[in-house]
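Researcher: I've been going back and forth with a colleague about how 1,2-phenylacetyl-CoA epoxidase subunit A might be arranged in three dimensions. Neither of us has a model we trust, so I'd like an independent prediction. The organism is Flavimaribacter sediminis, in case that matters for your notes. Sequence below.
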Amino acid sequence: MYSQGLIGADGRTDEDEAFLAAFQERIDAEMKIEPNDPMPEGYRKTLVRQISQHAHSEVIGMQPEGNWITRAPTLRRKAALLAKVQDEGGHGLYLYSAAETLGVSREEMTDQLLSGAAKYSSIFNYPTLTWGDIGAIGWLVDGAAIMNQIPLCRCSFGPYARAMIRVCKEESFHQRQGYEIMMTLARGSDEQKAMAQDALDRYWWPSLMMFGPSEGSSVHSSQSMAWKIKRFTNDELRDKFINATVPQAEYLGLTVPDPDLKWNEERQSYDHGEIDWDEFWRVVKGDGPCNRERLRNRTRVHEEGAWVREAALAHAEKRRERAEAAKIAAE
Ligand code: FAQ
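Model: Here is an independent structure prediction for 1,2-phenylacetyl-CoA epoxidase subunit A. You can compare it with whatever you and your colleague have in mind.
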């Protein structure tokens, strides 16, 4: 319906080759691809995979912070956290809608998440043990998300690019509120400073892992860059994030937990220590500290929400019947 099954197929005809070349020309000319435009099947699949995983991440990402809404230290902190968690749910909805324009249904995407077939960001499988973790998530996790998502505002697929513009604005606010929590803790009592440092210690490496595997192991990067879905490699974005974040940690008077972190004058970038890729893949494959809990909660909430979906469908059906009856009466 939306696409042609061309990429990767053996025995392409001259017509196929001409279609692919014309599609690439549109991409190279920075023209946006819209849902009803013809597109290679591989392009459509890549977008459905990335956008739906992104949506799942936003929705599952509500859990670690949601854990602290009832325990936020002041009313002001509670209101800001509540709004942030709601924003993340909203981002999930925009993204599911963007993916739906590619011919995949919300039900299919939800089934893939709940069955464990679809991934979501590794970062949300780590626990939020202290209030400091809420600061660290806003500062580091939203900071990493912005670094990754600003280039996605220029993604070649129109609905995804447009959704990202609004999402990035909201993520910037989230990053600021997280950094402000860290500043308050870092200027507080010895115990509060220790809490901020502990949160940085536990969230630093998982935040670097959010950018995905390094060059050799990133299976999708080169094709996604050729299609201008991604504009930078995972390593390039990770470096940009480190370069922006290290001075922020210094300003807080906190220590980044990487003894090998060193400014490289030649690269004009920090060199960093080895990321524990075994841990990354373990978490991605379902064996992180909170994977089971996150999916269990999501499944329970989905089941408990069945009546809402049924009521909404019944309401839509009633409206349709009424509109139909009114049309017949008017004829
Ligand atoms: N976790 O070949 P690549 C947020 C998978 S939103 C889990 O490099 P690609 C807001 C990858 O899917 C955070 N899996 O893949 C917030 C692929 O597996 P597949 C989410 C990962 O797609 C803040 C395989 O590894 N953001 O934080 C991860 O070219 C606070 C090979 O990797 C997005 O989703 C990972 N970290 O690049 C919410 C942004 N990394 O699909 C609440 C959009 C890689 O073949 C609170 N996504 N994998 O089975 C992207 O930019 C890209 O998809 C990457 C991965 C960069 C994540």
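Researcher: What would you highlight for our discussion?
Model: I'd start with this: The chain is about 65% helix and 5% strand. After that, consider the following. The first helix runs from residue 14 to 28.
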